[in-house]
Each structure stands twice: as structure tokens, then as C-alpha cells.
Amino acid sequence: MKELVEVIAKALVDHPEEVSVNEKNEGRTIVLELHVAEGDMGKVIGKQGRIAKAIRSVVKAAAAKEDKKVVVDIM
């Protein structure tokens, strides 16, 4: 899951070298914290949060195959 979020985020931003994803396991739930450059925050969130919602949907679908719950936080 971590790699999936990282690949998607790097494709969206102007500074892909500043993209990092931290993974925290909390039981069956995995929390992924996405960190991007300050100037790229809008590109990852999108208008009215549409891109952020799309990223979360893709990750949720991939996690469903593994019977896990994944939460994506954009920091």
C-alpha cells in the first residue's frame, strides 16, 4: 500500500523527491501518512479534495483485496 500511494503522489507533484510515506500499523488498520512539499499540497488535494478522495478510493480498493483497512492522511 505504501508504494502505491508513493507512486501516485510522485506522478502528481512538481517535486517528487520530497514525497514520503510513513506507514503505521494499528491492528488490522494501516495508517499511511503522505508528506509532500508545501507548494505541491494543492496538487495532491485537488479542487474540493477530489484528487485526495480518488487516492483514498484506489488505496481502499487495493486494501480490500488483502482484507485490511487503510487510512491515508495527507500531512
Automatic annotation (TrEMBL):
Which controlled-vocabulary keywords does the entry list? Cell shape, Cell wall biogenesis/degradation, Chaperone, Cytoplasm, RNA-binding
Job description of the protein: A probable RNA chaperone. Forms a complex with KhpB which binds to cellular RNA and controls its expression. Plays a role in peptidoglycan (PG) homeostasis and cell length regulation.
Q: InterPro entries, per this entry?
A: KH_dom-like_a/b, KH_sf_prok-type, KhpA
GO terms, biological process: cell wall organization; peptidoglycan biosynthetic process; regulation of cell shape
Subunit field text: Forms a complex with KhpB.
Q: Name one GO molecular function term.
A: RNA binding
What is stated as this protein's family in its record?
Answer: Belongs to the KhpA RNA-binding protein family.
Which organism encodes this protein? [Ruminococcus] torques ATCC 27756
* Name listed for the protein in its UniProt record: RNA-binding protein KhpA
**Subcellular compartments:** Cytoplasm
For this record, the Gene Ontology CC terms, alphabetical, are:
cytoplasm
